[in-house]
């Protein structure tokens, strides 16, 4: 295995969490392993935090205080003082939701990237799909139901779309083509769920794969139901009431008019 | 004249009572500060060489093929004997931020992003009170009394029964989301239609009528509603 030290320094942008209190909060950090064929131990600030971390897996969210973290990734079982396979630092800000991804850069070198996750509320009936290009592959289009949902996405960029919660046939193809290098595969997007999809692996070595991290429970409820348009269920008094009010108003108008006339007559 | 004015005045008072009583019940949405990862198939890493540190970090497969799929059971029919109502049920979604209501006034819509009837949380069924001058399937929902039994049938021929416990009206746009669209907790049925004042100019009612019914039990298959 080639030992490479790739310094990935990325600051996590503050995610404006809808309804989140203003005071400082721990950040929620998830780790995704997208380097094929390499089971690893993950060291954070010198301490082993995750052992035997397998490719294609994701951690539960870790609650971490804001701050700068030094991350070193070594082949599983390697001595803690050996040269890491991947290392880097990540700045984690208050109240953010972030993912640290170990993956290949476009040329196939293992690296680390930090992405800020948009976990703000999603409109009723919608899902949020974020696609992250973290594979050793050229720029791609993401196709949903045959048409391009995301165009010309290059490593290590991301794109986000909110779409109706439904099942989609999703494929990834080199930009400008429909020749799928991943998929097509059925993706059932649930209401109120954010999906963070990672294209990982290497096109050259035939190890491309799709990994998905989900954040659930951030949906919205519908505001109501438009279940009537004819007024049949309105109490019958309604038109009578309207008629009554009109009659009353008319009577008042006539009365005041009469009074006015009388006043004038007296003047 | 006095009668003409008196009747609507009472009726209006009834509406404003319902409106005044509802804000306390209108819950805030669940805390929006985070969210949790789906973790049906969590597994712990082998806790080797943990030197009194923090608990092992849990991991799971992130492969697309391992993504948990929620397979909700679709209700196919609704029966409310007290109203003489038997109707087919179709799944519905969201249109313009509102629950989609079937285009056919005789159909009941099941909000497919909510619970399946009998599963934890609120299973929402919507139906028209009226549509284009005709009475809808839920025209008499506002007459449904506590204690009435509501039965939901499924494609396999089985059914679940619910007993009405409450009926309320809420101004449109002020439905108590935590009640009507609860995603967890005890299983119950929420029947929704329109009611209250009718705004003839806009062609819509000003309130939603909501009936809550709690799960009684699993009805025997022979009692299942056909269709």
Q: What do these coordinates show?
A:
The complex is a heterodimer of chains A (267) and B (227). In chain A, 11% of the residues lie in helices and 43% in strands. Chain A is mainly β and 267 residues long. In chain A, the strands form four sheets. Chain A has a five-stranded mixed β-sheet with strand order 1-8-7-3-4, with no helix packed on it. A four-stranded mixed β-sheet of chain A has the order 6-2-9-10, with no helix packed on it. The longest helix of chain A is centred in the C-terminal third of the chain and has 30 residues, at 237-266. Chain A is flat and about 80 Å long. Helices cover 11% and strands 37% of the residues of chain B. Chain B has two helices and 14 strands; from the N terminus they run αββββββββββββαββ. Chain B has helices spanning 2-21, 177-180; strands spanning 43-44, 58-61, 75-80, 85-92, 94-95, 98-99, 108-111, 122-126, 130-131, 134-135, 149-154, 159-171, 188-199, 204-219. In chain B, the strands form four sheets. Chain B has an eight-stranded mixed beta barrel. In chain B, strand 3 (75-80) and strand 4 form a beta hairpin. The N and C termini of chain B lie far apart (51 Å). At the A-B interface, strand 2, strand 4, strand 5, strand 16 and strand 17 of A face helix 1, strand 2, strand 5, strand 6 and strand 9 of B. Strand 5 (57-59) of chain A pairs antiparallel with strand 2 of chain B.
Q: What fraction of residues of chain B sit in β-strands?
A: 35-45%
Q: Note the total helix count of chain A.
A: 1
* Alpha-beta classification of chain B: mainly beta
Strand and helix order of chain B: HEEEEEEEEEEEEHEE
> What's the β-strand tally of chain B?
14
Briefly say what this structure is.
Chain A is 11% helix and 43% strand. Chain A is built from one helix and 18 strands.
């Amino acid at each position: 295995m080639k030992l490479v030290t790739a310094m990935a320094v990325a600051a996590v942008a503050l995610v404006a969490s809808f309804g989140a209190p203003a005071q400082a909060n721990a950040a929620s950090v998830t780790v995704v392993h997208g380097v094929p064929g390499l089971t690893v131990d993950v060291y954070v600030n010198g301490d082993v935090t995750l052992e035997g971390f397998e490719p294609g897996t994701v951690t539960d969210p870790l609650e971490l205080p804001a701050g700068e973290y030094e991350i070193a990734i070594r082949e599983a079982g390697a001595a803690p003082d050996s040269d890491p396979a991947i290392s880097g630092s990540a700045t984690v800000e208050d109240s953010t939701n972030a993912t640290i991804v170990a993956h290949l850069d476009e040329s196939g070198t293992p690296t680390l990237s930090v992405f800020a996750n948009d976990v703000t509320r999603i409109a009723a009936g919608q899902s949020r799909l974020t696609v992250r290009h973290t594979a050793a592959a050229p720029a791609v289009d993401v196709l949903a139901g045959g048409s391009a949902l995301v165009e010309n996405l290059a490593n290590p960029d991301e794109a986000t779309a909110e779409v109706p919660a439904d099942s989609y046939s999703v494929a990834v193809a080199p930009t400008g083509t429909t020749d799928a290098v991943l998929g097509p595969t059925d993706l059932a997007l649930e209401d109120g769920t954010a999906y963070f999809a990672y294209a990982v692996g290497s096109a050259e070595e035939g190890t491309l794969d799709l990994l998905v991290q989900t954040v659930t429970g951030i949906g919205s409820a519908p505001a109501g139901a438009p279940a009537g348009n004819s007024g049949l269920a309105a109490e019958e008094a309604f038109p009578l009431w309207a008629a009554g009010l009109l009659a009353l108003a008319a009577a008042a108008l006539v009365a005041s008019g009469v009074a006015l006339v009388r006043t004038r007559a007296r003047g | 004249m006095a009668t003409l004015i008196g009747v609507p005045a009472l009726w209006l008072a009834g509406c404003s009572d319902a409106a005044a009583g509802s804000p306390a019940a209108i819950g805030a949405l669940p805390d929006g500060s985070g969210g949790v990862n789906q973790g049906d198939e969590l597994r712990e890493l082998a806790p080797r060489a943990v030197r009194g540190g923090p608990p092992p970090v849990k991991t799971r497969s992130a492969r697309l093929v391992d993504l948990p799929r929620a397979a909700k059971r679709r209700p196919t029919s609704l029966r409310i004997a007290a109203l003489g109502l038997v109707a087919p049920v179709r799944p519905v979604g969201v249109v313009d931020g509102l629950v989609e209501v079937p285009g056919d006034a005789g159909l009941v819509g099941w909000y497919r992003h909510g619970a399946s009837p009998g599963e934890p949380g609120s299973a929402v069924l919507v139906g028209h009170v009226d549509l284009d001058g005709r009475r809808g399937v839920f025209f008499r929902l506002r007459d449904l009394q506590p204690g009435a039994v509501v039965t939901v049938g499924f494609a396999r021929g089985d059914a679940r029964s619910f007993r009405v416990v409450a009926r309320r009206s809420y101004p449109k746009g002020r439905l108590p989301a935590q009640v009507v669209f609860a995603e967890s907790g005890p299983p119950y049925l929420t029947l929704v239609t329109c009611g209250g004042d009718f705004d003839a100019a806009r062609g819509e009612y000003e309130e939603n009528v909501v009936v809550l019914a709690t799960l009684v039990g699993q009805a025997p298959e022979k009692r299942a509603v056909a269709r």
